[in-house]
Each structure stands twice: as structure tokens, then as C-alpha cells.
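Good morning N.,

You mentioned wanting to compare the apo and holo forms, so I went ahead and generated the holo version with KGT. This is what I fed in:
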Amino acid sequence: FITRPPHRFLSLLCPGLRIPRLSVPCAQPRPRAMAISSSSCELPLVAVCQVTSTPDKQQNFETCAELVREAARLGACLAFLPEAFDFIARDPAETLRLSEPLGGRLLEEYTRLARECGLWLSLGGFHERGQDWEQTQKIYNCHVLLNSKGAVVATYRKTHLCDVEIPEQGPMCESNSTMPGPSLESPVSTPAGKVGLAVCYDMRFPELSLALAQAGAEILTYPSAFGSVTGPAHWEVLLRARAIETQCYVVAAAQCGRHHEKRASYGHSMVVDPWGTVVARCSEGPGLCLARIDLSYLRQLRQHLPVFQHRRPDLYGNLGHPLS
Ligand SMILES: O=C(O)CNC(=O)[C@H](CS)NC(=O)CCC(=O)C(=O)O
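and this is what came out, ligand included:
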């Protein structure tokens, strides 16, 4: 996939690249933070990377780095990598053995990559040895956001762990190796908009997405490694529902294909706009797709369909109250 020429790459993998609703005239001055691409009339472009992580960390890094470089060449200001971009291990013991702290070698390599490419990176789910590693011998599933200088600007540790038993998908017990994160993270300003951080299974909890939207998120991210049984049934429906109800863009970078003998993922990485339209999707296998983020469209939509003004938090107990 890496050797394909860019135009072919794009037309194959990015049917959503047709630019959605360029309603902002070029003459209109844009905020500095959004003037990322060579032409100031272009809306910020984001890239969604799809990979098949294996237990081989170095190989995984090289694959991700190739996609990130391609994203930068194509003009993206922000690239999204899926959950477990660092590796997918065969068992919990291997997961723990391969894990690193945020200050470890792998994050250092990604810092260099972000700086080299000059783009922001959403590292969707890093197997992180946290401060409490010595006591707990468990890790966090940590979504790390790097800016274009390679600095860590935010971390969110997955709060809903995937302990489920889906017939024919095999049991998953994430809490065997992983601690749930203690809190949600306030949305972060990026060149593409305010990004709200989540991870995979979190997408099943609309409370989280509403909390992020009410705290100002414009883009929700669900980096994932979705299973092959729940994938066809729930993946696109959940992502589109989260986009429609929060009136946010939803970006979901996914693992795909076979990671090792025991595990495969559904793929179907995509970007959904706040209307619920899928504006970009990856085709089968590793690759990337691109989408433009149009915040004036998002604001218009929120004006025309003001669901956040119609909420009745007086009726829902603690649901729907803002983050901060
Ligand atoms: O294990 C790792 O290394 C990384 N973590 C994952 O892949 C996690 C926990 S097993 N996967 C999911 O949350 C899938 C959720 C899902 O498939 C659903 O909600 O239907």
C-alpha cells in the first residue's frame, strides 16, 4: 500500500475526499490557527490511519510512520492513529511486557515524527505504564495527543474497559491488564478544531460524548480495535449516532485485519460529519483516508437544529451536565 502513487492511493481509499460544503468564501479571513495548508482558503485537513498492529513494536512504528508521512505530504494538519497503534499482543502477560511509560523510547520516536512532519498526532491508545505501575502491575489505555512540535498536550486514559463476552468473538477482559482512567479530559484546541478524547469501547457511552460536547468539543475521536462480530452490527451506527446527537465531527481510526493467530479487527476507519454523513472511509487493509473539517458548517448546523438548547438536564439526574 505504501508504494502506490498518491493520486491512486487517494481515489481508492478516500471517496470522502470530495470536499464537503466549502461554504466559507476564500476571501473571508480565517483564524490564524486554521491557516495550515498552503492556500488559506482550504479548510483544515485531517488524516485517519488504519493499520494492523502485531506484537512487533518496531514494525508497527514503521508502518504508522509511513502513513503519517503520507498524511503530511497530502497536507493534513492532524493525523489519527488507532487504539493499540503501538502493538497488539497475544495475551495479557505479553501486553504488560511490551508496555512503556509515556517517557519511554516509543513516545520519543513519535515526538520526533510529529516534529519532522510538522503535524499534530492523535495516538489513539498507548499501552502506558503509569505512575502506579510498581504497585498495580497494570497499565492504562492512554490516548496521547502530540502537537506539531512533538509535545504531549493531552492524555486521556480509557475510562470504560471492555470486559465482554460476545459469542463467536471470544471473551475480552481488558481489566486483566488495564486500569480504568480516573477522569475525562477537557477538549483540546488543535488546528482542526477542539478535539474531545475517547477510546474505542467508550463510544458505547453517549454520556461521555455529551459531556465532551458540552465542554466545547467539535471533533470527537474514537480510536478503536473493534471486534469482527460487533463491528458489522454496531460500528457505523454508533459513530453516526454520536456525531448526530453531539453535532460534532467524529473521527474513528481503526485496527483492521489479523494481528496474530487469535485476534482480528473490523477496520472501517471513518470520519462522520455533524449531520451524520460519512465523509471519508478507509477501504480494506492498512491505509489512510482524509477529510476536511468545516467548523462554520458545524456552527450553522447547531444554530438550525439547536438540540443543546432543548436539553432537559432537570430530568436526567446527573446526565448531560457539563464537564467543568
Ligand atoms: O487489547 C489491546 O491491546 C487494546 N485494546 C483493545 O483492543 C480493546 C480492549 S480488548 N478493544 C475494545 O475495546 C473493543 C471494543 C469492541 O469491540 C466493542 O465495543 O464491540
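Residues 105 and 284 are 31 Å apart (CA to CA).

Happy to go through it together on a call whenever suits you.

Best,
F.
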